[in-house]
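Worked example 3 (structure in, sequence out).
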């Protein structure tokens, strides 16, 4: 049974390529359709948090200054996640920071990445949009109501992953959903889902 690590970063900007660094991370472990553990911490990367991002996330420079060093936090969370496949809502964003920060540790991560945003676009095309808050409301998922903080967003994404897996099983008559199918579905066009699942089922046989 696969354990997934659902992660979410809060950061000082959009990309580490432009000097942005993380200010907070959460990782929520999901196994067998249930949340089984979690990790969360603010972190201090030694760079200021822009005012607009402080307003957006509620994470202030004072909070970051009092937090553990980024290397300490990333070492802990990398050990917590281990080799688990990583799930993020808009994985293109979080993956850049995960890769950059684990590279700085000298232990580049090799985790597979699953994007719940891409999967939701394919499985729930009728949603008004595919922002995390919209999906949480539309699907009636559990939520603390505090979006744009790492643990709250990671927990919402974990519940979304569980819902996505259930939707895939129900739509295609599957008993379970393996990582390989999630990776294939997130790359498939919206009109290619049946063919994608047929190829997956045929490959298993």
């Amino acid at each position: 049974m696969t354990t997934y690590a659902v992660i979410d970063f809060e950061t000082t900007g959009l990309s580490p390529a432009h000097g942005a660094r993380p200010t907070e991370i959460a990782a929520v472990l999901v196994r067998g359709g249930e949340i089984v553990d979690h990790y969360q911490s603010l972190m201090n990367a030694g760079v200021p948090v822009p005012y607009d991002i402080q307003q957006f996330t509620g994470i202030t420079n004072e909070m970051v200054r009092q937090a553990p060093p980024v290397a300490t936090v990333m070492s802990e969370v990398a050990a917590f996640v281990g080799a688990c496949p990583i799930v993020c809502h808009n994985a293109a964003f979080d993956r850049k920071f995960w890769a950059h920060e684990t590279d700085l540790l000298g232990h580049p991560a090799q985790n597979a990445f699953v994007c719940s945003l891409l999967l939701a676009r394919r499985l729930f095309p009728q949603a008004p949009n595919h922002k995390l808050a919209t999906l949480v409301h539309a699907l009636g998922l559990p939520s603390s109501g505090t979006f744009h903080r790492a643990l709250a967003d990671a927990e919402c994404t974990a519940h979304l992953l569980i819902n996505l897996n259930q939707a895939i099983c129900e739509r295609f008559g599957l008993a379970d959903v393996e990582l390989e199918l999630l990776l294939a579905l997130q790359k498939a066009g919206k009109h290619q889902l049946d063919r994608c699942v047929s190829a997956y089922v045929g490959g298993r046989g």
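Notes: The chain has nine helices and five strands. Residues 150-172 form the longest helix (23 residues).
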